[in-house]
Amino acid sequence: MRNFPNDYGKKGGRILASEAEAPVVGGPGSGNRYRFGSKQRVEDCLSLDVRGWRREGVLEPGRFANLTWHPRGRETSSIGVRALHGAVELSYSVRSGGASGRKEDVRYTVPLTWTPCNFGGSRPWFVCPGRVNGVACGRRVAKLYLRHRYFLCRYCHDLTYASRQDTDRDAALRKCRRIRWKLGGSADLTEPFPKRPKGMHLRTYVRLIAEYGKAYEKLIGALTEDAERLTARVLGGPRGKP
User: Fold this and answer.
1) DSSP 89-136
2) Is the pTM of the predicted complex or chain greater than 0.85?
3) Using one digit for the tens of pLDDT, what is the confidence trace for 52-71?
4) Residue 157: which of 10, 23, 24 has the closest Cα?
5) Sheet holding 122-127: strands in order across?
6) Crossing angle (nearest 10°) for helices 168-182 and 202-235
7) Which DSSP state fits 183?
8) Which end of the chain has fewer CB atoms surrounding its CB within 10 Å, N or C?
């Protein structure tokens, strides 16, 4: 059983899946996290990575695997994957109308294709089964993302990356949390900084401490500027930096 990263959350959109490959039998999943006025992000969606499946033998024809997502050690969702010749069959359940809605099953196939590598061997790709405005997608992609029942490519779901939306404050906060997680600690910046994990080189640990310090300084600076702008608006004084 494989644990996927916390790529979590779904929200409405404009995709209609191909009726031949992904019949409409379910509704939007749970775990929504919506950012008003902005595109949904790939980091907010459950995802499938064909590269990881290849490494773990999931793509061997005839094999069936039950894969789960365990963000922060808590199981949230699972999916059944059956490997076929030149495709994988996905099966999972969704709930119409959110967590309290009726549970419905979804099952469809996603084609696979392979391309040669520069130094020998080959690598697999998903062939996106989505349709946009009646036109089949067919993009060759390494990852598919879940929205509106179906795992499709980020282009079909009109997704963006968090790094393209991040302000300086967001980027600094994300880096601080990422370093803490890498060291096995909590994302809570008010907790003590994590100790050096067993097996990690001291030089690596020192480098991460330095990177954390720089990111933390940027975060505090950005928060200070935000507070100053807010105070200026409330009091009607100078706005400071635009």
Assistant:
1) EEEEEEETTSTTS-EEEEEEEEEEEEEE-TTSSEEEEEE--EEETTEE
2) no
3) 999 999 999 999 999 887 65
4) 10
5) 3-4, 64-69, 77-84, 87-95, 103-116, 122-127, 140-141
6) 150
7) T
8) C
